[in-house]
């Protein structure tokens, strides 16, 4: 049995934590989505903040992992990387940094700077909808990985 690769584990940890953040965040977006966590906004807030801490730690781990790969001049293709230099990996990196910055502003200034909080909440919420839509697109585009591989016809027979 092959050992699981580090990038594979990071990818699925990332997906799990993002899912928790998305569900708890959407539950706090208003009465329209409160049913996601049975209208328990206080619990949604705690779950969201705890998951956010894990999300930031995972982000740091991924960035350090990428820096180490760059320093080692590792050019091997890693299909499970969370971030990448172009395409969906770059989009993920930009949205992640934006989520972390806006989330930190919301968390730190919720009770003191209402204008900054309102603006960053708006950005954070709209980015959530964009990110969730992009995850659905990402899953659709990767469904080819779920198909059972066909056996290649043997030549010379």
Automatic annotation (TrEMBL):
The keyword Acetylation does not apply. It is found in: Cell membrane. It comes from the Bacteria. The chain crosses the membrane at residues 47-68, 80-109, 121-141. GO terms for biological process: respiratory electron transport chain. One of its GO terms (molecular function) is electron transfer activity. Residues 9-148 form the Cytochrome b561 bacterial/Ni-hydrogenase domain. SUPFAM superfamilies: Transmembrane di-heme cytochromes (SSF81342). GO terms for cellular component: plasma membrane. InterPro entries: Cyt_b561_bac/Ni-Hgenase, Di-haem_cyt_TM. It is a multi-pass membrane protein. Keywords: Cell membrane, Membrane, Transmembrane, Transmembrane helix. Its main location: membrane. It holds the Pfam family Ni_hydr_CYTB. This is Cytochrome b561 bacterial/Ni-hydrogenase domain-containing protein. It comes from Paenibacillus rhizophilus.
């Amino acid at each position: 049995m092959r050992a699981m690769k580090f990038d594979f584990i990071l990818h699925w940890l990332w997906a799990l934590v993002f899912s928790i953040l998305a569900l708890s965040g959407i539950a706090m977006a208003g009465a329209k989505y409160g049913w996601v966590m049975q209208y328990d906004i206080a619990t949604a807030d705690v779950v969201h903040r705890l998951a956010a801490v894990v999300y930031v730690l995972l982000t740091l781990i991924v960035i350090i992992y990428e820096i180490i790969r760059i320093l080692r001049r590792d050019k091997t293709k890693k299909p499970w990387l969370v971030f990448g230099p172009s395409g969906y990996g770059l989009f993920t990196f930009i949205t992640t940094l934006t989520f972390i910055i806006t989330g930190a502003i919301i968390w730190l200034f919720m009770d003191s700077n209402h204008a900054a909080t309102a603006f960053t909440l708006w950005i954070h919420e709209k980015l959530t909808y964009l990110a969730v839509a992009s995850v659905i697109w990402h899953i659709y585009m990767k469904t080819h990985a779920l198909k059972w591989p066909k056996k290649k016809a043997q030549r010379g027979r």
